[in-house]
Amino acid sequence: MTGRLLCIALMLLLTACGSVIPRARAPGLHDLGTEAPVIAVRNAPGEVDVFAPTWLESTAMAYRLDYDSPTRRHRYAESRWAAAPGELLQTRLGDVLSVQGHGRGCRLVIDLSEFIQVFDSPSSSTALISGMATLVDGTGHEILDRMRFSIREPSEQADARGGAQAFARASVSLAGRIAGWMDRDGSPAAGRCAS
Predict the structure, then answer these.
(1) Number of domains, the chain
(2) Is 171 exposed, middle or buried (0-12, 13-18, 19+ CB in 10 A)?
(3) Which domain, by its residues, includes 116?
(4) Tens digit of pLDDT for each residue in 78-133?
(5) Which of 125, 130, 140, 169 could in theory staple to 119 by disulfide, Cβ–Cβ 3.0 to 4.6 A?
(6) 116 in a domain, yes or no?
(7) Which helix (H) or strand (E) is 63 found in, with range?
(8) Which residues, 6 or more positions from 28, have their beta carbon under 8 angstroms from its beta carbon?
(9) Is pLDDT above 70 for 175?
(10) Model confidence over 23-68: pLDDT tens digits?
């Protein structure tokens, strides 16, 4: 009888403790925001595709402490991207460059090599987006032009929120760089990428 009472008392105690123990918070989700200018591009691509290496295929928000361990990638424990960086960037570039998604004209292919927040010190960080942009003709068989890019945008806060805001600005800067590259005088896109 005593054992049964002890068991019941223990179960009641565990139930009561379970309602007091705080539950783990779900990580905060970040994206590149909704406010971005539309950049007028004479030779706008018909579609944009972004490809990323395996280490950028998750929703983890990565950062690097250049002042301490420059070869080590870290992840924020309580913050995540709403989607993988390549997907976020593809959507943002399509919106800013006013890509129609109808497949006409040229195809812009982005091979992303880095999408990371870099800390130069504990209180100073920069969003880094780098890779290669390739312009392919409408058939998908001919490479018209290529451009390497490395966009750095300082963060106003040295945390995940500040990093997300810096990435939002960096993605618009990248779209502007691509627009200038496609519309420059003598660009292979001229006359080949008209929708």
Answers:
(1) 1
(2) buried
(3) 43-183
(4) 999 999 999 999 999 999 988 765 556 789 999 999 999 999 999 999 999 999 99
(5) 125
(6) yes
(7) strand 60-65
(8) 78, 79, 80, 160, 161
(9) yes
(10) 656 779 999 998 888 888 888 888 999 999 999 999 999 999 999 9
The CATH number of whichever domain residue 142 belongs to comes to: 3.40.50.10610
**Burial class of residue 102 (count of CB atoms within 10 Å of its CB; 0-12, 13-18, 19+):** exposed
Helices of type H across the chain: 2-20, 85-96, 160-183
Q: Compute the distance between CA of residue 14 and CA of residue 97 in angstroms, rounded to an integer.
A: 57
pTM summary value: 0.83
Residue 159, CB half-sphere, CA atoms under 13 Å: how many? Answer: 6
Q: What is the Cα Rg of the chain in Å?
A: 23
* Residue 193 placed within a domain: no
Is there a domain that residue 35 lies in? no
User: What is the CA 185 to chain-centroid distance, rounded?
Assistant: 30
98 part of a folded domain: yes
